[in-house]
Every structure is written in C-alpha cells, then in structure tokens.
Amino acid sequence: MSTMQTQQRQKTTIFNVFRLLKPHTAITVVVMSVGIVSSGLALLQPLCVNYLLHAIEQSQKLVRPIAVLALLFVAGIVLDGLGSNMANRLAAKIVFDKRSNLITCILGLPVQEYDKRESGDYVSTVISDTNELRSALSSDFFKVAANLLTACGSAVAMLFIDTRLFAVALITSCTSILLMIAASSRLQAYTELVQAKTARLSNAILRSLAGIRTIKAFMATVPETKRVVGTAEEVYRATVKVANKETIIRSIVNCAIQLTLLIVFSFGGAEIAKGDLDISNFISFSMYLTMVVSSLSSFSSSITTAFKALGPLRRIEDIESLRDKSETVSSSNMLSPDGHSSFDTANITLEFKDVCFSYNTADKDDERNTTLQNISFSAVPHQRTVIVGSSGSGKTTLLSLLEAFYRPDSGHILYNNVDSTDLNANDIRKVVSYIEQDAPIFSGSIRDNLTMGTIEASDETCWNALKLVNLDTKVRNLEQELNTQVGEQGHFLSGGERQRLSIARILLHRKPVILLDEPTSSLDSINQQKINALLREIFSEQTVIEVVHRMSTIEPGDQILVMEKGKIVACGTHDELKISSPAYRELLQMPTISQQTTDN
C-alpha cells in the first residue's frame, strides 16, 4: 500500500461519516430539526399523561387533556414519518453523489493506475462499499441529535420526578453506552475484511465470466466453480465474524437496558409501596425511562452502523485519493512556439527523441526491465510508418505512449514540436485515433459502438462508415438495423465483423493521427485487402503509424521501423531493408497470419 493511502487510512475515523453531510448542510439541518421537534413533542406526552391522571383523580373534565395528548401523538407520528422519508432520500442522494464521484474518478484515471488493481476492486467499491455506506446513513443516523435531546430532556424530567430513581437509571445507562462504544469500535477491522473479501469475489466472478467459453471448452467448469465458491466462502466466514461481533454488541445493550428497567421498576415499586412515590409520577418516570431506553437503542444502532461503514469508507477514500491523478484535471499547453494552435490542421508531425519506458517502475534503471530503449524516429503526414518485429519487441507499447496511455520515463515525444509532457492526455487523444489489438465491442447497439465519442453522428454518416467496411448489407438485414444489440463484448458478431465495426468507428473520427495495431488480423484475405486499400485511401493525408504482422501489406513508399527487444534496429523502405537489415529479412521469411485467418 502506498504512503498516501496509509496516511489516508490513518485519517479515517467515525467523524468521516459525519463529514459526508457537509455538502448537504441545509437539508441535513432541516431533517435534524424535524427530528428535534418530533422529540420535543414526545417529551411533552408524559406530562400530558400525568395531567390526565390528576384530572381523573380529581374528577375533572378529560376532554382537554385527551385532546392535547392525541394531538401530540398524531403530530409526533407525522413528523417522525416525514423526517424518516427526508433522511432516506438524503442518504440516497449522498450515496449517489459518492458513486458519481467514484465513477468519474475511476474512469478518469491514467491507464497505469488500472494496472495496479483488479477490475473487481473498482466494481466492489462502487457497488458494495457504497451500499454499506447507505446502511450507515439510515434514518436513525440523522436522529442522533434528536435522540440526544430526548435522552437529555427525559433525564432532566426524571431528575425532577425522583432523584434516587434517576441515579439508578443514569448509572446503568452510562455503563451500557460505554460498553457499546467500546465493542462497536472493533467492528471497523472486521467490516474492512469483509469488503476486501467481497472485492476478491467480484474479481473471481469477472475473471470466470470473461473466459467462460475457454472454461467450457477445456471442461474446467467444476474446478472453476470450486475456486469461485471458495472465494465466496471466505466472504461468508468474514461476514460471520462481523455478525458475531454485532450479536455481542446487541446483547450488551439489551442486557443493560433490561437490567436498567428491572432495577428501576423494582426500586420504584418499593418506593410506591412505602408511599414515598406517587403512582402518577412513577408512570411519568417510566415513560421518560422508556424514551431514554429507545433513544439509547437508536443511538447504539447509529454508532454500530457508523463503525461498520468505516472499513468501506476507507476503501472509497483510497480510490478518491487518486483524483489528483485524473487525466481530466491536468493542465495543457496546446500552443506551438510561435503562439499558434498546433492542432488546428490535419497535419501533425510526430517525433520520438531517445524515449525510454518500463512497466516495472521499481527497476526503471535496469536495462533488462526496460520495454523501450532509446527510441528515436519521426512520422510525417502523407506517409505510412509501419512497425514490424517479433512478439514482445515493444510495438504495441510504442503506440500506447503515442496515445498517452503511459508517459515516457525519459526522452521526449513531440506533437508538432510540442512535448507530450506539456499536453493534457485528453487533448492528445483529440487528434489521435487508435485501433488496438482485438479492439473491444461494447454491450449495446451497433449505433452505440459506432458513435462512441461522436454522439451527434447522423444515421447517414453511420451507414456510410458501415458501407466502407462492407458491413452495411449485413446490418440492413437485421430487424433493428443500427439499433441491433450486439451482446456482451459483441458476441453476436463474428470476429471479422467485430473488427470491421471497430474500423468503421475510427472512420467517423478522421483525426490527424491514426494508430493501427494489426487492424485486419481477424479478417479473411479478401476483406483484408479491401480494408487495407480503404485505409490507405481515406487516411492518405494523415500521419499513420501501423503495427503489422502480414508483410504482404507493406508497400514501397512506407517507412518501416524494425523493432527487436525494445529497440529500433533498422529503419528504411522495404527495398532498403531487404539489403541492409538481417532482422527484416528474417521477418520476411516467417509464415504470415493471413494464411490462417478466416472471417468467422
């Protein structure tokens, strides 16, 4: 765990739960005020009962005391219901805001942050941890002030009714409160363990679902099920520990309450028997005592759930502490040295100067762990730059740096002579289009996948893009055409259709820089030739950098970079490299993927 996260954990206390109310101060004051007024009305009820009993003893008219008592009772019920409704709606709004902040933070993180956590951790935090927070923000939580008022008001009234009975009730009540707080504080560690185990379960389920076809193909359903169920059992065991602690807390509180009632009623009965206590005063005292007991019970529930929420709240704050790393908040300088916008035309020149990069941040200085070493080249408009090399040579990593998924450890990447370190990652992506290996197709409609990032695209524009990749006929034959659902990860489409749809998506953008990572790897030879010719025609004026495995797609005018073990070992045209580069000649002799690929 990072030092920053450790510091954040040290700051997470019971008061952090109350700080969640700060952005909603006005409505919180209203909710608590309603609760206080309701408590005030409740405090008047024992006095009215006492007045009613005296009226009965003295044979006075009962209409007024009964009417007042009924009015207090109804008003209290109405206000209590109104306060509970407002409290629940406020809690829902707080959780919604927290989830919105988390989603914004998570989706805005740099790519390298996703490498540090599993996806299930993020999913669990947004859903499970915030649910625990919602449980803590129950209506009882917002009645803390009202409960304290009720308890204090009742205590004052009890003090005036009978000092000795009050002393007995005070001692037992204070004892129960101290025991409850001491026991509740230990829930924090256990609930944090439950949430951590729940995150592991989320990861396990996501892993299984992502590879469900492979699991079934290798008949691994039974062992995979055992593995996930084993993780679920860990959640169960951690939950049982929390349940045991909660049982102890409830038992302590209930025992203290029952003991208080038993002692007070026994002592009060003895006082009545000796004639030292009036029966009407004892009834009023008992009603106030019941209010104290009810307030303590509600207060106990609030404190217990608040302590339970500390574990989830810590996990939420750990992610929120990454907000400063969000790509949406960094500054940018989109001006060239002459003061004019560098990105206002379709012509962007890219340049790498001695760029080094390593995924292993702990050993950046160790050349053995460096993914890219001293990369230098330039790419200009109207020319395709082709990157070739064996698997693991750093080709895709180079494209990831251009897309600002990662930043170089040293060296410079220039966009029209502007250093990438002076640019916001999102500003870079405004001028760069990228088709990654196995470009994902998202759950939703064909239209949703086409118009990602270009929501205003018209139907005509979508159909034109589909026509260019030879998908329009297929889509027009579907019942809902552009609105057809493609299924999770586009499983209702063939591999080739998914790849053509991802290419159609990039055609809608027409950005100045085009990055292609084996864009036709899943296509048959016929569609491969058509798409490659299409891409060359449409992006003839852009700066195009493409990773290829099929050497047959290389043309004489292409600039070719040969990569080997994170280095560019040769650069030139096809004819030049056939003569000067042994590594390139070796690649030419390797079998091409095109002989094995089918569009299915």
Task: Give a quick rundown of the structure.
With 600 residues, this protein is α/β, with parallel strands linked by helices. It has two domains: 3-323, ABC transporter transmembrane region fold (Up-down Bundle); 350-437 and 513-595, P-loop containing nucleotide triphosphate hydrolases (Rossmann fold, 3-Layer(aba) Sandwich), CATH 3.40.50.300. Helices cover 59% and strands 10% of the residues.
Q: End-to-end span in angstroms?
A: 45 Å
> Number of helical segments?
21
Strand content: 5-15%
The number of domains is: 2
* Uncertain spans: 1-9, 329-342, 593-600
Give the % helix.
55-70%
Mean pLDDT: 75
Radius of gyration: 35 Å
CATH domain topology of the largest domain: ABC transporter transmembrane region fold
Please give the CATH architecture of the largest domain. Answer: Up-down Bundle
Main β-sheet description:
6 strands, mixed
Overall 3D shape: elongated
The CATH homologous superfamily of the largest domain is called ABC transporter type 1, transmembrane domain
Count of strand segments: 10
